[in-house]
């Protein structure tokens, strides 16, 4: 069996999808986290692309969270049963990642001159567009409580994780999206994930 080490800041961020996949699969891994203050001096130079997260699999450091999460999901049977189900699962993952990237760009990118104003626009104008898209795609591809087909996929975990961040902005933000809410319920009530969520530390991001 492979040895896994996930390296990231001490937050959920782009590492959380992989953590949820490990939790759902019941597979153990080393969760290496560090405060942002240690990033430039102690960690950045040792990363493959000058970014985190990266996953060390049997000694090889792999960057790009969606790529390594897909590989984990494949290994742990969460990608779908045939080519088309896998494709639909990727489509849902990409649709959710669009929202995640849009969020991080507005909140953390220093080249966005006024992050506060950008975040206000993000919340009022951009989040609803993304949530509509996610609700639509899971309505097309999934049955009740699942984003694709009728079993748990890594796309369900991504929907859960990224919409959790949106709920922090507004606890009513998902009221108009019953399919997303149903997926969240499936994920939250999964026994292994529920145990993980209960033990997970509260972090800033
Ligand atoms: N597409 C990459 C993006 C990685 C990324 O943007 N990481 C950010 C943190 S979420 C980072 O390393 N920022 C610090 C830096 O660039 O110095 C992924 O999904 O892993």
Automatic annotation (TrEMBL):
Enzyme category, top tier: transferase
Record domain GST C-terminal: where: 82-205
Annotated keywords: Eye lens protein, Transferase
InterPro entries on file: Glutathione-S-Trfase_C-like, Glutathione-S-Trfase_C_sf, Glutathione_S-Trfase, Glutathione_S-Trfase_N, GST_C, GST_superfamily, Thioredoxin-like_sf
GO terms for MF: glutathione transferase activity; structural constituent of eye lens
Pfam families named in the record: GST_C_3, GST_N
Limits of the GST N-terminal domain: 2-80
Gene Ontology biological-process annotations: glutathione metabolic process
Record's keyword annotation contains Transferase: yes
EC number of this enzyme: 2.5.1.18
Keyword Transferase among UniProt keywords: yes
Catalytic activity: RX + glutathione = an S-substituted glutathione + a halide anion + H(+)
Family: Belongs to the GST superfamily.
Entry protein name: glutathione transferase
Source species: Brachionus rotundiformis
């Amino acid at each position: 069996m492979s040895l896994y080490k996930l390296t990231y800041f001490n937050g959920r961020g782009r590492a959380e999808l992989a953590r949820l996949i490990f939790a759902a699969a019941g597979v153990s891994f080393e969760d290496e986290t560090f405060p942002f203050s240690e990033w430039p001096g102690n960690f950045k130079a040792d990363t493959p692309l000058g970014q985190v997260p990266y996953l060390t699999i049997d000694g090889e450091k792999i960057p790009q969270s969606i790529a390594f999460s897909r590989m984990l999901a494949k290994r742990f049977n969460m990608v779908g049963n045939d080519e088309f189900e896998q494709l639909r699962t990727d489509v849902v993952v990409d649709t959710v990642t669009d929202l995640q990237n849009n969020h991080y760009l507005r909140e953390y990118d220093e080249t966005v001159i006024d992050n506060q104003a950008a975040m206000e626009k993000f919340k009022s104008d951009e989040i609803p567009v993304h949530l509509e898209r996610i609700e639509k795609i899971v309505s097309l591809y999934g049955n009740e409580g699942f984003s694709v087909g009728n079993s748990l996929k890594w796309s369900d975990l991504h929907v859960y994780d990224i919409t959790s961040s949106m709920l922090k902005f507004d606890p009513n933000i998902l009221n108009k999206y019953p399919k997303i809410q149903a997926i969240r319920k499936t994920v939250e009530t999964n026994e292994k994930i529920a145990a993980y969520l209960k033990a997970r530390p509260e972090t800033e991001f």
